[in-house]
Amino acid sequence: MGTARTAPARASAQASKAPGGGVEGDLGWSLGVLLRAYQGAVGAVVGAFPHGHRGYQVLTTVAHGDQPSQLALAAYLGIDRTVMTYLIDDLVDAGLVQRQLNPADRRQRKIVATAVGTRTLADLERRVREAEDVALAVLAPAERDVFRALLRKVACEAREASAGVDPCEVVGEVLVTSAPATAHRRQPPAPGTSPRP
Description:
With 197 residues, the protein is mainly α. It is built from eight helices and two strands; from the N terminus they run αααααββααα. It has a two-stranded antiparallel ribbon. Helix 2 packs across helix 8 (167-177). It starts with 6 loop residues before the first helix and ends in a 20-residue tail after the last helix.
């Protein structure tokens, strides 16, 4: 007697048989759907963090990178420098980062993670990874690693080609355009009223 397939296995089998035509074969549609699933899973983890996912990415870049100044950090992440100022202010107020003089150029202020920020990030990174695994549950662990590597390769190349574009604005546009078209659906009439023509 055969064993029942798990939901991820069934979904994977269906995806492998999906024809190239139709919306399922459109890369933009697939990215939009995946992005919404990612936002739902990871948003629950970083939602209470200062500035949410954007703040989390800034702290990650500060802790693991070596940007010489706040301006360089903003340029690297594609975030408007004015927005970055407010964002860093809030991370400083939360005790997660500090502005320090850059010993290589004392005209610059380098953003560094505090001990609290480092501990907070370690916990968040673990929880974000678990949430990502939920969003990618249809893939086996080895497939997730390959998917992440390929996506990172494409994203890094695309980032170089679209320097100066705020990635958060792009994400917002994708989420809006890929959202189910429910906003303009006519609502059913209330009980006891006549439907509108």
